[in-house]
Design brief:
mainly alpha
Length: about 350
């Protein structure tokens, strides 16, 4: 293992993870791009498509959105702390940034019903009160929310629900809860300086892996048998493994990216992550175009894998070429302008 990477290189590592998250999101999203063309029920798959569908449920579904959510929390801390160091008002500036994201997200929603941008903006407002919170307070919130989330899912699987219980639990176990948990987790990791000192926290990170790995294995086996048996609670079962799997993925990626050779090898992926906003927006349109050109009436899991790889390859090449001429993605530049205004944007501050 090489020596710990510098803060500048750690930002590159974050971009690599962000790029990989975008790739994972594609596998879960490609079938939804068909919704831009026509709506229809998702068929049951057998054979190779059934296996791929199950593997996506085990390894991909919701996990990479959660990684993206973690990085959003990291980004909140970096953005706010840098704003404060410049003498700006960090929370008010971040609120303006969220309002800009909300507007752009609503526009994207008009074209792609599965867009998460507007939801990120709305949930992001919940982060603002935590900027001055103590690390111990944030940790308690994360622990409490995870506990409530898991209990609500287990009750949804194993207990009969009355009307009022169903309404209460559905609020706790919807996708807002894990997104906010990962927002807070990313914010805490940045605030506590963990992501800049991965080597110094390697023992704690490995302990996290030891704890989450058996949970991941157990939940994966459960998901496999649940999908084969058409368990009506499959959505809850997938969600149960979401947070442990995300922590396992993140801890493993941070340790792997301590190796500078690997980081250098994945530089093209970092370019994708560096303009993640633009690439996330563009994925739906590129996917729409490919599905239309292929004339697909139904996007099977096998189709999804192929199309996801093609889209990511296109975006990797495009991103690398883009940064040969520019230092910021097009939507990132627009978002920056909407956040700071003409003077700051032009000065690049």
């Amino acid at each position: 293992m090489n020596s710990s990477v510098t803060q500048k290189e750690r930002i590159i590592s974050l971009d690599i993870i962000r790029g990989l998250a975008l790739f994972g999101i594609l596998f879960a999203n490609v079938w939804a791009f068909k919704g831009m063309i026509s709506e229809g029920e998702i068929p049951d798959y057998n054979g190779i498509n059934g296996i791929i569908s199950t593997l996506i449920a085990i390894f991909v579904e919701k996990k990479f959105f959660s990684i993206f959510s973690f990085l959003f929390g990291v980004g909140f801390y970096i953005f706010a702390s840098r704003s404060e160091s410049r003498g700006d008002k960090p929370r008010w500036r971040f609120i303006r940034r969220l309002l800009a994201l909300l507007l752009i997200g609503i526009i994207h929603l008009l074209f792609f019903w599965g867009s998460i941008l507007y939801a990120y903006a709305i949930i992001g407002f919940l982060l603002v009160p935590f900027y001055r919170a103590k690390e111990s307070t944030i940790s308690k919130w994360i622990g409490g929310l995870i506990t409530l989330y898991i209990i609500s899912l287990l009750m949804g699987i194993f207990t009969p629900e009355t009307w009022w219980v169903s309404k209460t639990l559905s609020f706790l176990r919807n996708d807002v809860t894990p997104i906010f948990i990962m927002f807070l987790s990313g914010f805490l990791a940045a605030k506590a300086n963990w992501i800049w000192k991965v080597r110094g926290f390697s023992k704690q990170i490995r302990m996290l892996q030891i704890v989450t790995l058996p949970i991941f294995i157990g939940s994966s086996i459960w998901i496999w048998f649940a999908t084969q048996g058409n368990d009506p609670h499959i959505h809850y079962i997938v969600s149960l493994g979401l947070i442990p799997t995300t922590f396992l993925y993140l801890s493993s990626l941070f340790l792997i990216l301590e190796n500078k050779r690997i980081t250098k090898l994945l530089q093209p992926v970092a370019r994708v992550g560096q303009m993640a906003f633009t690439n996330y927006w563009a994925q739906s349109f590129i996917g729409f175009a490919i599905i239309s050109l292929m004339g697909l009436e139904v996007v099977s899991p096998l189709n999804s894998v192929i199309i996801a790889i093609v889209i990511f390859a296109i975006q990797t090449v495009y991103s690398v070429i883009w940064f040969m001429f520019f230092n910021m993605g097009p939507l990132e530049k627009i978002w920056r302008f909407m956040t700071y205004g003409r003077k700051t944007a032009s000065n690049g501050k």
